[in-house]
Design goal:
Shape of chain B: globular
Number of helices of chain A: 0
Strand content of chain A: over 45%
Structural class of chain B: mainly beta
Structural class of chain A: mainly beta
Number of helices of chain B: 0
Helix content of chain B: under 10%
Shape of chain A: globular
Radius of gyration of chain B: 14 Å
Number of strands of chain A: 11
Oligomer: heterodimer
Helix content of chain A: under 10%
Radius of gyration of chain A: 14 Å
Distance between the termini of chain B: 41 Å
Strand content of chain B: over 45%
Largest interface: A-B, 25 and 26 residues
Distance between the termini of chain A: 35 Å
Order of helices and strands of chain B: EEEEEEEEEEEE
Largest sheet of chain A: 7 strands, mixed
Number of strands of chain B: 12
Chain lengths: 117, 114
């Protein structure tokens, strides 16, 4: 079973450095999502792609964050000039075309832990 | 603003006790509703979902949830919990049907004592 795959699983970085996370969605899923989760909170939506098009971005996604999905398959999430407040779990998820009845089941990866020191 | 509320932060039960976790969402028209579970050290897994039809939805591992539209609620239930149900449970809502993203509640941590 090839679920959503993320790497690295853990990243410790110094404040001010750039980090990049990669996500490989479930094969043939055309939608890909990025969420962020901090301790004691539920996941918060950051952005999503349909194929290679980035269709929605949350206000949480500051200018230091950029996500790409160049060929409509894997995606990267880059955080520039990291701050301590960026410390969180970054979750990737994917889904297929709209299901019947109308709906959209989203499958999550194991997440990438970021610690900014 | 669209939001999801989970009433209990931490629930502690003994094995064989019945479980009900509350979830309410703010009004927003068409909704799809989900419960996800996160076992210790594992990723979020889908327990069950509601898109339309029968408001009583059955999921994996003996869980069920009931969508009550008039109360904007989607409570999760299980008649008899097991120690292995110890996990964090998240209610999530997708507003607008097939478009957009999930809005999650803050989660309820369930601890089941053997």
């Amino acid at each position: 079973d090839t679920g959503v795959s993320q790497n690295p699983r853990h990243k410790i970085t110094k404040r001010g450095q750039n980090v990049t996370f990669r996500c490989d969605p479930i094969s043939e899923h055309n939608r890909l999502y990025w969420y962020r989760q901090t301790l004691g909170q539920g996941p918060e939506f950051l952005t999503y792609f349909q194929n290679e098009a980035q269709l929605e971005k949350s206000r949480l996604l500051s200018d230091r964050f950029s996500a790409e999905r160049p060929k409509g398959s894997f995606s990267t999430l880059e955080i520039q000039r990291t701050e301590q407040g960026d410390s969180a779990m970054y979750l990737c998820a994917s889904s297929t075309r709209t299901e019947r009845p109308i709906g959209n089941t989203i499958y999550f990866g194991e997440g990438s832990w970021l610690t900014v020191v | 603003a669209q939001s999801v509320s989970q009433h209990n932060h931490h629930v502690i039960l003994s094995e064989a006790a019945s479980l009900e976790l509350g979830c309410n969402y703010s009004y927003g028209g068409t909704v799809n509703l989900f419960w996800y579970v996160q076992y210790p050290g594992q990723h979020l897994q889908l327990l069950l979902k509601y898109f339309s039809g029968d408001p009583l939805v059955k999921g994996i591992k003996g869980f069920e949830a009931e969508f009550i539209k008039s109360k904007f609620s989607f409570n999760l239930r299980k008649p008899s919990v097991q120690w292995s149900d110890t996990a964090e449970y998240f209610c999530a809502v997708n507003y607008g049907g097939s478009q957009g993203n999930l809005i999650f509640g803050k989660g309820t941590k369930l601890s089941v004592k053997p």
